[in-house]
Amino acid sequence: MIRVGTSGWVYPPWRGAFYPPGLAQRRELEYLSRTLNSVEINGSFYALQRPTSYQKWAQQVPDDFVFSVKGPRFITHMKRLVGVDEPLATFLASGVLALGPKLGPMLWQLPPNLPFDPEAVAAFADLLPRTTAQAAAMSEGHSDHVAGRAWTTTDADRPLRHAMEVRHPSFDNPEVPELLREKGIALVLADSAGKFPVIDEVTADFVYARLHGDRELYTSGYTDDALDRWASRFSERARGADVYVYFDNDAKVRAPHDARSLLDRLE
Predict the structure, then answer these.
(1) What is the rounded distance in angstroms from the CA atom of residue 265 to the CA atom of residue 28?
(2) What CATH code is assigned to 2-266?
């Protein structure tokens, strides 16, 4: 299975350039989901979302569409993975389980100033729920931030996947893929115009890639030759694992077009 999408979908510059002129903002996700087969929810990185939002998003997309959900920066950037039992429970209670069968991997993007600490990474990995039933049970420990609107149930017990994107140079270390492989967490393959480490190691039963731009971070588009190379790489990976690919080069409206072009090469 190969999923290709974008990191988020609410971008004003996309209106009239990717989204048709006059398309209502509330229908943008619906439009995107008819072009691609997945998307990252990145608003959850900046703030806790509401169960009603997750329910609405799930209703707007086809049955076989999948959402990846980006974990809160409060956990990764502020708490730096340490002492996050309650924040993790609160995030899980904020509504992610309301996505039901459309819930895909959870993405944990580490900050560029956080060096590799094997004990901290291992402890955080051990804390993450591996099924939706475990996530629902953990969510009961949420804080008052979601009081009165917590979603602490799941419609079925399904496997829950996690991916980690690393950015500090110290993570370019053989111990990192070894540790994440032991924990069953996917090490994100990130293309970031040379700014952050590029570590191409399969460490789980799925592959997670984020393409931020190969020449200019968050901005440059991918040439036909570059997309051909990525398509070949992901086709090879898909022989033994599910593949999730998200374009984050949104500044000049390249992300949705590049995502569609890559998907065309893979279908």
Answers:
(1) 24
(2) 3.20.20.410
Task: Show the tokens assigned to 196.
Answer: 């952050």
What is the pLDDT averaged over residues 219-245? 95
The residues facing 244 across adjacent strands are 3, 208
Structure tokens at 57: 């998003």
Give the 3-state secondary structure of residue 105.
strand
Amino acid at 80: R
* Contact criterion met (CB below 8 Å) for 264 and 41: no
Instruction: Say how many C-beta atoms besides its own lie within 10 A of residue 191's C-beta.
Output: 21
Residue found under tokens 């969510």: 139
Output Rg (C-alpha) for the chain, integer angstroms: 18
Q: Which of 248, 245, 257, 197 is nearest to 219 (CA)?
A: 248
Q: Can you give the residue ranges of every domain in the chain?
A: 2-266
| 50 CB neighbour count, 10 Å cutoff | 15
Work out the pLDDT band at 31, boundaries 50, 70, 90. Answer: very high
pLDDT tens, position by position, 180-221: 999 999 999 999 988 999 999 999 999 999 999 988 888 889
